[in-house]
Design a protein that fits this description.
- By secondary structure, the protein is an alpha+beta fold.
- The chain has a domain of 50 residues.
- Helices cover 35% and strands 9% of the residues.
- The chain contains 4 helices and 4 strands, in the order βαααβββα.
- A two-stranded antiparallel ribbon has the order 1-4. It has a two-stranded antiparallel sheet with strand order 2-3.
- The two termini are 24 Å apart.
- The N terminus is likely disordered.
């Protein structure tokens, strides 16, 4: 079963610069367990605005900040989700 969650507080998508990414005290246990190459790919996936900004490590966001209520989720069409998954698979 696929569970999707949305951030309850949108300000939690605070940007994380390269130095913050390198400081592993700011990342989850999951990220700490990744090898260097996998960690680099992980941080690349969090980047947006042509790699100029990065989202926080989603595994570090407290559980109570996420919502299972679909009315809080962004509105996405099936086609957008399909294309996003298709691009990631081909990446």
């Amino acid at each position: 079963m696929l569970l999707l969650f949305a951030l309850v507080e949108p300000h939690l998508d605070k940007v994380m610069d390269e130095k913050e990414q390198e400081n592993l005290s700011d990342v989850s246990i999951y990220v700490k367990g990744l090898d260097t190459e996998a960690r680099s790919r992980y941080f690349d996936k969090l980047k947006y605005e042509n790699g100029m900004k990065s989202l926080l490590d989603p595994y570090k966001i407290p559980t109570e900040k996420w919502s299972k209520d679909v009315t809080n989720w962004p509105s996405n069409e099936f086609g957008q989700i399909y294309i996003s998954i298709k691009i990631q698979i081909n990446y």
